[in-house]
Amino acid sequence: MSTYKKPCEKCGELVPPDANVCPFCGKSNPTGPSRCPKCRSPVESGWKVCSNCGFNLVFTCPKCGKPTFPANFCDSCGAKLTVICPNKKCGAEQFPVGDTCAKCGKKMK
């Protein structure tokens, strides 16, 4: 059975329909809805808070200082917004939603 590629919502390149990251632009959720970094419910650009958990969806980019939607990269300058767990055995990459790693619980820097 063949699978049809879908256009990345960020750059327009064709990617596999189950891709978590676009291999061309590096943005997450290239073919599906954006998800809340805290509860993973679908969210839309322009929303102020997640409709499921109330998480604030307006984030200030640490590089350019402009407000951006929580994704892997800043909407304005393209800087990477995710952090990597300092636990070498874990190394999970996540949006900075708290003081601890969502996967292993280690304190984030």
Polypeptide structure, described:
It is a single chain. This protein has 109 residues and is mostly beta strands. Helix content is 0%, strand content 15%. It is built from no helices and 8 strands. The strands form 4 sheets. It has a two-stranded antiparallel sheet. The chain has a two-stranded antiparallel ribbon with strand order 3-4. It has a two-stranded antiparallel ribbon with strand order 5-6. The protein is globular. The termini are far apart. The mean pLDDT is 83.
Can you tag this structure with a few keywords?
109 residues; mainly beta; two-stranded antiparallel sheet; 8 strands; 15% strand
Shape: globular
User: Sheet with the most strands?
Assistant: 2 strands, antiparallel
Q: Please identify the structural class as seen in this structure.
A: mainly beta
- Helix coverage percent of residues? under 10%
Strand line-up in the sheet with most strands: 1-2
Q: Calculate the mean pLDDT score and round it.
A: 83
Strands, total number = 8
Intertermini distance:
46 Å
User: How many helices does DSSP assign?
Assistant: 0
Query: Into which percentage range does the β-strand content fall?
Result: 5-15%
Q: What Rg is obtained from the alpha carbons, in whole angstroms?
A: 15 Å
Uncertain stretches of 5 or more adjacent residues:
none
Helix-strand sequence: EEEEEEEE
